Amino acid sequence: MSSSYDVVIIGSGPGGYVAAIRASQLGLKAAIVEREHLGGICLNWGCIPTKALLRSAEIYKNMKEADHFVLSAKEVTFDLSKIVERSRKVSGQLASGVGHLMKKNKVDVYMGTGVLTAPGKVSVTDGDGKTSEISGKNIILATGARARTLPGLEPDGKIIWTYREALQPDIMPKSLLVVGSGAIGIEFASFFRTLGAEVTVVEVMDRILPVEDEEISKLAQKSFEKQGMRILTGATVESIKVTKTGATAKVKSGKGDIEDIKADRVILAVGITGNVEGLGLEALGVKVDRGHVTVNEWCETGIKGLYAIGDIAGPPWLAHKASHEGVMVVEKIAGVKGVHPMNVANIPGCTFSLPQIASVGLTEAAAKAAGHEVKVGKFPFMGNGKAIALGEPEGLVKTVFDKKTGELLGAHMIGAEVTELIQGYTIARTLETTEAELRATIFPHPTLSEMMHEAVLDADGDVLHM
């Protein structure tokens, strides 16, 4: 392999490996440095394996409720170890696919830990301690992030889990305490509750999924509680006492009351922090703020030729954001015409729980706070023929428009397959589509997507099927 490149990327997650592929497509000589697994956290320990687990839980739920579809399925059971094994196979398949893509695009891969030794210089140390020195006219940091911990609530990998241990549980817990109700916490809470665990979720904010529209958050909590999940908002975990078989957490409510909650296992899902340590950033003068590298709209760090993308560069911590940034940075490096900074407001967010939650743009409250005079449209799943036929009548599609201009400010959904539907509104925002144009768009029947049209019509009181 060469020792000199146009682009060197440290980290091979969805930001890093996509950046390498795009660099190759544009005729740039590219190299990837990866210390653990090609595909990064997303492919190996995040997005993909969790979705495999949740799919198994969803099918298990449907089989148990077979009588709803006039079918019979007796003695439905599951083997948690086999469910986990399947999720690992899915991850393994995709990780090997990344390796194939690197070869196909002639990207050199250095397996080892990369450290910046000088501007444009990277030292790579492999598992055997052998060091390679490589250089890049441009270097992209794509080292991702890891689970954040809180003082006194540190995970031990046995009783107190992070997402890594939750993906490969040693037991099927009869009781589970989840600390934090963002997408990661809610997805694991949903998975284990669907399989039968008694689940309690503790959230310090006044509602679960706090980045989502308040109305959607309330509907989500109602649905989860209907499934038997216990949710404590405005609450904090003061301490956790661990034994060989479980843990007891002291949980303080918003009113100051203290409750002891016992659980076989605890999952910490209180956010993430960037992998900024050990990269040589301090010596180069790279600015780091609260665990993330400081960048401008082009993901530039302030050091010539040094960029940071994805989770290490701050929120939103989403794989598709990292991929988009990777392509944007490489195209800017290559001088591609028409490349422009990413609009964070057009990044969709998805939570793959049962039910699913998805959104893009401003919440109703945020739109009003930004000074917009808004009009809101809503349509429930109960009014959609396809949703009823699927046996999925619970859910809501919500749109937020600027009353004066017709701009689609935001869209928010809860219900079956909304993580697939949200892209329609994302495209609409990217194209700066107005309410009038969405009204004039023909949606196929019978589909769940018809609810997206109805939610637009409802903003003017013209809803058809309610």
Overview of the structural elements:
The protein is 32% helix and 26% strand. The protein is α/β, with parallel strands linked by helices. Strands 1, 2, 3, 4, 5, 6 and 19 form a 7-stranded mixed beta sheet that branches. The chain is globular, with a radius of gyration of 23 Å.
SSE inventory with pairings:
Layout: E1 4-10, H1 16-25, E2 30-34, H2 40-45, H3 47-64, H4 80-104, E3 108-111, E4 113-118, E5 121-125, E6 131-141, E7 145-147, E8 160-161, H5 163-167, E9 175-179, H6 183-194, E10 198-203, H7 214-226, E11 230-233, E12 236-242, E13 247-252, E14 258-263, E15 265-268, E16 272-274, H8 281-284, E17 288-289, E18 292-293, E19 306-308, H9 319-334, E20 349-351, E21 356-361, H10 364-369, E22 374-380, H11 385-390, E23 396-402, E24 408-415, H12 418-430, H13 435-439, H14 450-458
Parallel strand pairs: 1-2, 1-6, 2-3, 6-19, 8-15, 9-10, 9-15, 10-11
Antiparallel strand pairs: 4-5, 5-6, 7-16, 12-13, 13-14, 17-18, 20-21, 21-24, 22-23, 23-24
Helix pairs in contact: 1-9, 3-4, 3-6
Helix content: 25-40%
- Tell me the radius of gyration: 23 Å
Distance linking N and C termini: 64 Å
The low-pLDDT segments are none
Question: Strand share of the residues?
Answer: 25-35%
Calculate the mean pLDDT score and round it: 96
How many helices? The count is 14
SSE-based structural type: alpha/beta
Q: Largest sheet, described in full?
A: 7 strands, mixed
Describe the structure concisely for a colleague:
The chain has 466 residues and is α/β, with parallel strands linked by helices. The chain is built from 14 helices and 24 strands.
